[in-house]
Amino acid sequence: MQIYPDIGDIHASCPSDFNMAEYVLANADILPEKVALSVVSKSGARRISYAQLKSDVLGVAKGFLESGVGPNDRILMRLGNTVEFPVTYLAAIAIGAVPVPTPSVLTETEVIKIIMDINPAVIVHDGACALPATVHRVLNAGQINAFKTNPAAQFHRGDQNRLAYIVYTSGTSGHPRAVMHAHRAIWARRMMIRDWYDLGVEDRLLHAGAFNWTFTLGTGLMDPWSVGATALIPEPNVDLKILPLLLSRHDVSLFAAAPGVIRKLNAALPDQFHIPKLRHVLSAGEKLSPEVRSTWRMKTGVDIYEAFGMSECSTFLSSAPHRSSKDHALGWPQRGRTVSLRAVHDPRQEANSGEEGIIAVHQDDLGLMLGYLKAADETEDRFVDGWFLTGDHARIGENGAYYYTGRKDDMMNAGGFRVSPIELENSLSQVKGVTGLACVEVYIKTDAKIIVAFYTSATADVEAQIHEFARRHLADYKRPKAYVRLDALPQNANGKINRNALREMRHLIAY
Questions:
Q1: How do residues 371-423 score in pLDDT, each as one tens digit?
Q2: CA–CA dist 352, 375 (Å, integer)
Q3: What angle do CA 408, 342, 259 make, to 5 degrees?
Q4: Is the Cβ–Cβ distance between 98 and 165 less than 8 Å?
Q5: What is the pairing mode between strands 313-318 and 303-310?
Q6: Does an H or E element contain 61, and which?
Q7: Cα–Cα distance for residue pair 64/148, rounded to 1 Å
Q8: Which domains, and CATH codes, for the chain?
Q9: Distance (Å, whole) CA 229 – CA 31
Q10: Distance between CA 398 and CA 189 in Å, rounded?
Q11: What are the phi and psi torsion angles at 239 (to 5°)?
């Protein structure tokens, strides 16, 4: 029995009466005893069947309903790297509520802003993640676990275009934006499953990330469950050095990780390391360097397939086993996606053959966001003639592949998270004594870069204060990894900070 059309049917339309969580969990009725999730460690694995997963999700969903949460209510998730993260996420969506997953490393200062943005009906808190004193109702992890024994809630079906979940990203405006996604977003991921993953029901996909990272949530959990495959996640705080052992021991056929993780594995692997069942590796979050790709291939004999996407739109460019290149292309538009390269000088036009342009996604693409919460003007500014401009530049080769050339702005990337330099600069400039500050990414070696804060100050003893301020007010991944004091920040002819000149100052970095 098949509840939804086959993944290979690119002409299948998303049902008009739809619930994203119901779609993800549909295989629980077909493969109830199959392992849906395996949390793996050096000593073994903790397994959850599809039937148990669905029961847990709908039990928690019932608990939310009985707690007064209903359709369209926002549920702020302040949970760490635990199974409760995806269970809570799906439970909220199941009843038509709107989960707002957030990184556990956010500070109280950052969480306060999110609470003011979304006005949650309830906050789910594990007791460990930072959470300011609040008048909003808080449910703890114990209560969520107790909800699992409830009778099953019913799925709340409705228009595929209604709001399903909200994720936060940093934007060029200098502060994180709440990105709103519809239930239909999961349907667009069918194109990824076919034209990036090559994922099927027999696969065992291990994602190296934590439960509470959106890359893991989508690629590592939602997508394998959508096709009836088995998802594997390493236990919290697992040593990266044992990942190759886990890949072999647990018969992993697909492995997903950010380029930084693959780079560290390359350093730990012997010259030859055979992983018996591994077909290929999936990489996303930031551009994969040719050196990391070739070193992994040389040591394991396994290819890496890369994909490009963003918080505003699930990955839409990718390579795959049936379509790849030897010259490190970013990828091809997935079949069923509507992608274009727009002219830099006039985005209303397509870029000419061979020239650099702006990567864009059409407004009708199922994976594209509904918009930014409470920011209609900013949402509108990202669209030109029906095309959403990503801000990333590329050129198209003769083979039709997109070759990444950079960003039009100065957004940075920390382990797969986009970080706005303006957000960091606005925050760190509050430190007393700082007279000027600019944050950029700097390569410290061929395939590794870090966020560096260059600053000017009246006295030379300010750095310790900047460190402490960053520790208290910025999530760890946003904090600069190096600080460099200058007599003056370089400027271009227009009097603006010359970020390219700063990027060339790697010789000043003590790291």
A1: 999 999 999 999 999 999 999 989 999 999 999 887 777 778 877 787 878 88
A2: 33
A3: 50
A4: yes
A5: antiparallel
A6: helix 50-66
A7: 11
A8: 420-508 (3.30.300.30)
A9: 10
A10: 27
A11: -70, 125
